[in-house]
Amino acid sequence: MEGKSRPATSASDAISALDDLVATSVVGQQEFARNLGLSVMDLICFAHVLAAGDSAVTAGDLAARAHVTTGAVTGILNRLEQGGFVTREPDPTDRRRVRVVAVPAAADRVQAVYGPYHALLAELFSQYTPDETAVITDWFLRAAALARTYLTDSCET
To answer: What angle, 0 to 180 degrees and rounded to 10, lies between the N-to-C axes of helices 11-36 and 104-125?
Structure first.
């Protein structure tokens, strides 16, 4: 596949487009969360649990990743557990900690909500060459790392 010719653009144009995507995504996350009976922060934390795969995460891990206090994570985990999204298991190496594990059926529920959107995104990515997709992916990864660093350095929890 050969890349499409695209109009010239500036960093300012790209940032504007990113701002629009982020704003639309925030609204989308609110709707996805509502469809699952969760708050956006609950959904964000559950996404971190899902992303961990077979590696269980701790409440402290979630607090750091979601940029909330450990007290706030306790409430989030209570709601996720009551909603059937996660279970808490004792940490075999430290009895004071618990590990948070996704309930497999809950992952299926989330996939049912996100699946159609992810299919549309996959179709969009199919319009780019593998090299273009590699650049886009690199940009996403680097921008996410930059955002995490900025949050850590500039915002208090």
So the answer is: 150
Strand, coil or helix: 56: coil
Tokens 């059926």 label which residue? Answer: 105
Q: Among candidates 98, 96, 95, 118, which has minimal Cα distance to 47?
A: 118
* Cβ proximity of 43 and 32 under 8 Å: yes
Q: Residue 115: what are its φ and ψ, rounded to 5°?
A: -50, -50
The pTM score is 0.82
- Strand pairing of 57-58 and 86-91? unpaired
Q: Could you give the count of Cα atoms lying within 13 Å of 140 in the half-sphere of its Cβ?
A: 8
Does residue 87 sit in helix, strand or coil?
A: strand
Phi, psi (rounded to 5 degrees) for 28 = -60, -45
Mean pLDDT (10-residue bins), the chain, 157 residues: 80 93 93 93 94 87 89 94 93 86 92 93 95 95 92 76
Q: Record the tokens describing residue 74, joined without a space.
A: 């306790």
Q: What ranges in 52-154 are assigned the alpha helix state H?
A: 59-66, 70-82, 104-125, 130-154
Token readout for 106 is 């809950």
